[in-house]
Amino acid sequence: MGLFHAIPYLTDPHNHFLRQIWQRSPLVLVHGAFSNHNTNWGFVKPLLEQQFTVYAIARRGRGETDATEGHSLDDESMDVVTLIQAIDEPIFLLGHSYGAQVALAAANKVPNRVLKLVLYEAPYPQALSKEALTQLEALVQSDCWEDFAITFFRDVLFVPVKELDELQATDLWSPIIADAKATLGDLRAMVRYSFKADCFRDLAIPVLLQIGSESPRDLYVTDAIAAVLPDARIEKPGLSKLGIMQTSRLQSHGKETLGVGWLLTNTDQKGNLNSRETGLDGVHS
Questions:
Q1: Domain that holds residue 37
Q2: Which of 16, 52, 60, 108 has its CA 20 to 30 A from that of 38?
Q3: Are 175 and 80 in contact (CB under 8 A)?
Q4: For the chain, how many structural domains are there in total?
């Protein structure tokens, strides 16, 4: 099954699109930068769809959504909140990179609607300095979108040259470049975002914080969040920043990737929390 649903009342006047993949416990996915609701999850979808009803939201500027300018990370978190509230039962929530910051902010707004939260490498806003953003903006002015992507991966995320070269040789590279303009909006929103770990001190839901064993740890809020959350654990799958998008890395890590096994703890053998099928109120295929 692969049904597309449009939800016109998500942050009107912006239409947000998502894919309902399977009829089991609901899992909402929030993708990161340089990706969309399809490319971010392409290689993990087969794992996830075995266990969950997956709602992969297309953030602003992706899919058939409207591209907005000047939006904030908080605006995007409200988009996710609207989706969560449209689903008729509590959900699992998973965010990647910039999407992890969005997911964290959303969960903090509606903690009673989120059963468990997985955050894969939520970045510090200051991981992208204003000077680095200025350099990236200069490339944008010259319409050098590929150089924009290369510079970001190399100089901000410190992706090794060999790994970056390998990525450029894959089918993933073209979609990454295609997403660069929407990603610019993410980066602008990120540098304006005021992240304070203490704001999440009362978030009592179970949280799994994932960071790749090959990733530079000081770029991410993993340890700061773990220090304040009442119920958090850190997991280090053997993946780098790009690992979630690379099939060769995922094939060797199975269900530990994105905490699938952890999400299913305390559910029945089919991964269901109850017998109800989930859907979206007022939305038809």
A1: 3-126+193-263
A2: 108
A3: no
A4: 1
